[in-house]
C-alpha cells in the first residue's frame, strides 16, 4: 500500500464524532499528588502480575494467518476492517495515555509509574497485533500520524479512572463473550484473531483491577455525594456509547453469529455487576424503561447517521440534526433519572 493511501485512511479515522474512540490527556501533576499508601501492598501485588507478563508468548501470529483472504466478499471485508480500525485506534489511545502517565510519574511514584508503563506495553502489543491483521487486507494505520494529528480530550484524573475502569471491564466482557461464543460455534470464526480473545480479555481484566485499586485508594472518588453522581454518569455514558455503536454495526455481529442487541445487553449486565463491586451504586437494568430508552436512542442515532450520508447542503443537515440531538439529550437524562441500585445492598443480596 502506498504512503498516500495510508494517509487518506488515517484522515478518515481521525474524523471526530461523539461515538468514535478518543485520545485523552489529564492533569499529571494532580495525579502525582494522589496518596496510595493505604493500598500500597495491593499495588505492589498488581505490579508483580504485570511484570509476570503472562501473555508474552500469546500474541504471536501462527500459520493460520498465512493465507489469502480473497475468499471473503467485499461487504464482509469492509465490516471486518472497520472493526479492526476502531479496535486498533482504541488500543493505541490507551497506550499513549498510559505511557505519558508513566513518564510523568516516574520520579514521583515509581510503583504507579511502572504499573502504567507495563499496561502501555500490553496496549501497544494489542494495537500492533490489530495493525498486522489489517495488513492481511492490504491496509495499515500510521500510528505516528494518529499520535500527531488526533485531537486530545482533557479529563481530570478521577474521570480518567471512572472511564478507564469501565472501559477495561467492558472490554473484558466483550472479548470473553465473543471468544466463548466462537468456541461453541467455530464456523463463525471468519478470521484467526478471534482465537486470541481469551488472552486479550485477561489483559483487560488486570487493567480493570488496577483502576479499581486506584479508585478504592481514593475514598473521595467513591464515597461522596458528587462521586455517586459521577459514577452514575459514567456508567450510562459508557453503556450507551457501546450500545449505539454496536447497534449501527449489527451486520458485523451477524457475521460472527451474534445478535448485536442481545450481545450488548449481556455485556452491559456483566459489566454493571462488576462495577457494583467497586462503585457505590449500579444501574437498574431491570427497570422497564432502561433498554426501551436505549433502543429509542439507537434509532435516533441511526437517523443522524443517515443524515450524514444524505446528499443535502450542510446547513439543511444541521437543521434536521438539531431536534434529534435534543431528543437524544432528553432520553439520556431520562436514563440518568432511573433510580439506581445501592451496590452495598446488591452485594448483600448476592451473598
From TrEMBL:
Pathway of action: Porphyrin-containing compound metabolism; chlorophyll biosynthesis
Enzyme nomenclature, EC number: 1.14.13.81
Cross-referenced InterPro entries: AcsF, Ferritin-like_SF, Rr_diiron-bd_dom
Catalytic activity field: Mg-protoporphyrin IX 13-monomethyl ester + 3 NADPH + 3 O2 + 2 H(+) = 3,8-divinyl protochlorophyllide a + 3 NADP(+) + 5 H2O
Domain of life of the native organism: Eukaryota
UniProt KW keywords: Chlorophyll biosynthesis, Iron, Metal-binding, NADP, Oxidoreductase, Photosynthesis, Plastid
GO MF, one annotated term: iron ion binding
UniProt keyword Magnesium present: no
GO BP, sorted A to Z: chlorophyll biosynthetic process; photosynthesis
Enzyme class: oxidoreductase
Pfam families: Rubrerythrin
Key word Iron present: yes
Cofactor annotation: Fe cation
Domain Rubrerythrin diiron-binding, residue spans: 82-215
NCBIfam families reported in the protein's UniProt record: AcsF, PRK13654.1
Function, in words: Catalyzes the formation of the isocyclic ring in chlorophyll biosynthesis. Mediates the cyclase reaction, which results in the formation of divinylprotochlorophyllide (Pchlide) characteristic of all chlorophylls from magnesium-protoporphyrin IX 13-monomethyl ester (MgPMME).
Protein family (similarity comment): Belongs to the AcsF family.
Protein name (record): Probable magnesium-protoporphyrin IX monomethyl ester [oxidative] cyclase
Organism: Neogoniolithon spectabile
Encoding gene, per UniProt annotation: acsF
